[in-house]
Structure formats: C-alpha cells, structure tokens
C-alpha cells in the first residue's frame, strides 16, 4: 500500500493536469514527488526553498489572483512556524487554499521535536473558518484531497500521516461515520483518522458507540448528539492523534444543553525526550489498544455488550 504522502503527490499531480486554477507551493519538502508535474507545469509548481513564511505568503498571493494554492511541508513548518502568515495571508486577506501537512504529532521520531506538531489542530482552532481533514487511509486521503482542491475558495487543512488503518472508510468531506453501535444512550467514542483501528480493538466487547471522524472541523455535533440520545448523562471519549483535549470544547458546545462528561485522549503536553519509534510514542501517550482499553473502561465503567463493526 502506498503512503498518504505518495498518494497526495500522485493525485495532486493529476489534478494539476486537469485544473488550470491549481498551483502547488513547496518548501523543499516533497519536491521529488512533484518533479514530473513541475516539468509539465513550471509556472504552477513552485519551490521556495526552506522559507516557510514565504511558502504561506506565496500561497496567499496566488489565492489573491484567483488561483487555488496547495501548500505542503511538515506540520511544524506549515502551521506552527509561519502561523502569523497563515493568520494574515489567508484569514485576514479573506482568501482560501489547501494546506497539506506531513509529520503529524510523532510520525518521524528520529527527526526530533522540531518535526513534530501535536498542537497544530488546536492552533488552527484559534482562527476562523478552517476545515480540518484527518484521513485514516491513503484512499481517504485521495477523496479528501480531491474534495479540498475543488472546494472553491475554502480554507482547508489536510493532516496526512504515516499511520493508517487497515482499510478505508467511506468519507465525504463532512460529518462523522458510525462504525459500531452500542445500546441507546451508550457512551460514544469519537475516533479520529488513523487511530480508528486501535479504538475498535480497544473497545471490542464494550457497550459503546464508535464514531469515525476523518473531518474534525467543522465538528459534527449533530451526529454526536444522536449517538448519545437517551442517556441520563452523556459520556463521550475523544481519541485524537494530536494534543489531548483538542476537541473537548467542541463536544461541550454540541452538548451544551445535555448533562455530559468527556474524556479527551491524545498526545500529552509533556515532550517525549527520546526518539524511539512511532509504536513507542503511541504507548508513551497511551494511544495503543491496550492503554486505550484501560482508559476507556475506567471512564465508562462497563463492558457488557459487543457491537458490530
């Protein structure tokens, strides 16, 4: 199976052939994947070098001319380092584009903390109007990328990962997908992107409803409300591949008139100061299936019914 980044380069290269409005802006990262596309479209595949603020500025400038810019590098260099440019050159200027990241929270541990961005989605939450996509499989990444590139002038962030679920789920670019059903009013577990398989393994035999989220912003409060309907006090567990608790405010807003409690699981705030492997980082942050089961079971306090996935 190809990776999400490989699929991104292949799909976006084809879209460059099909859509003269599309342009790709790179900051040295990912250049090889677009080498042939750059030969065909030298004016619409731009490498600005290791200048991430310029990467965003060029993208915003292209958007002001009516182009649909697609910007790509590691999440720490795409969202965190040039955050002021994201805020001003897209938000303040009122233009749209597609930010496509790699690296995520700990996808490349050997590169150290400079290449990790567990707070990227939380940071974008401080800005208005961003759609945030977190695919869990290369096939989902292709669907969401095509949707984002054709999405008029919207601001879209697509968070790619080296981690992937075993099989894709039907994603549409909006909303949550119920993949396991508990009894009416059972606790709801929202599994984001590549953590779905771990959540399904962790909740096997538990009386919970599992919702899959490949689109996390806008947050699908309606589907969450429907999932916990009938509970005297709703219980919600968020399992996110970035900073723990990033979406707890969204849950509170969705259930503002419903008694509820929420457990936010994800990457811890404390920095893991060892390189290690992705699998070791998952264990360290309590996101492996065994740790998830212990934490979810302790929160919901029951394990008496199997669901269907």
From TrEMBL:
Residues spanning the signal sequence: none
GO MF term (any one): magnesium ion binding
Boundaries of every Transketolase-like pyrimidine-binding domain copy: 2-168
SUPFAM superfamilies: Thiamin diphosphate-binding fold (THDP-binding), TK C-terminal domain-like
Pfam families: Transket_pyr
Annotated InterPro entries: PDH/Transketolase, THDP-binding, Transketo_C/PFOR_II, Transketolase-like_Pyr-bd
Superkingdom assignment: Bacteria
Matching PANTHER family: PYRUVATE DEHYDROGENASE E1 COMPONENT (PTHR43825), TRANSKETOLASE-LIKE PYRIMIDINE-BINDING DOMAIN-CONTAINING PROTEIN (PTHR43825:SF1)
Protein name as catalogued: Transketolase
Source organism: Streptomyces taklimakanensis
């Amino acid at each position: 199976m190809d990776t999400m980044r490989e699929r991104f380069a292949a799909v976006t290269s084809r879209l460059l052939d099909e859509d003269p409005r599309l342009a790709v802006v790179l900051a040295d990262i990912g250049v090889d994947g677009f080498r042939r596309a750059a030969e065909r479209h030298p004016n619409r595949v731009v490498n600005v070098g290791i200048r991430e603020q310029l990467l965003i500025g060029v993208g915003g400038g292209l958007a002001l001319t009516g182009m649909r810019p697609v910007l790509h590098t590691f999440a720490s260099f795409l969202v965190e380092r040039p955050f002021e440019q994201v805020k001003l050159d897209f938000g303040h200027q009122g233009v749209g584009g597609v930010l496509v990241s790699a690296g995520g929270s700990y996808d490349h541990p050997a590169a150290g903390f400079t290449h990790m961005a567990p707070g990227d989605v939380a940071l974008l939450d401080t800005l208005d109007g961003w759609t945030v996509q977190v695919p869990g499989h290369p096939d989902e990444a292709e669907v969401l990328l095509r949707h984002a590139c054709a999405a008029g002038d919207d601001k879209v962030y697509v968070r790619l990962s080296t981690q992937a679920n075993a099989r894709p789920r039907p994603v549409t670019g909006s909303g949550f997908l119920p993949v396991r059903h508990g009894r009416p009013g059972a606790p709801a577990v929202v599994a984001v992107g590549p953590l779905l398989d771990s959540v399904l393994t962790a909740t096997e035999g538990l009386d919970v409803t599992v919702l899959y989220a490949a689109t996390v912003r806008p947050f699908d409060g309606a589907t969450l409300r429907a999932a916990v309907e009938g509970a005297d006090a709703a219980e919600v567990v968020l399992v996110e591949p970035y900073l723990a608790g990033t979406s707890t405010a969204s849950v509170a807003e969705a259930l503002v008139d419903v008694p509820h409690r929420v457990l936010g699981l994800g990457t811890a705030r404390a920095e893991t100061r060892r390189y290690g492997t992705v699998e070791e980082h998952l264990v360290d942050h309590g996101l492996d299936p065994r740790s998830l089961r212990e934490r979810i079971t302790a929160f919901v306090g029951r394990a008496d019914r199997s669901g269907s996935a």
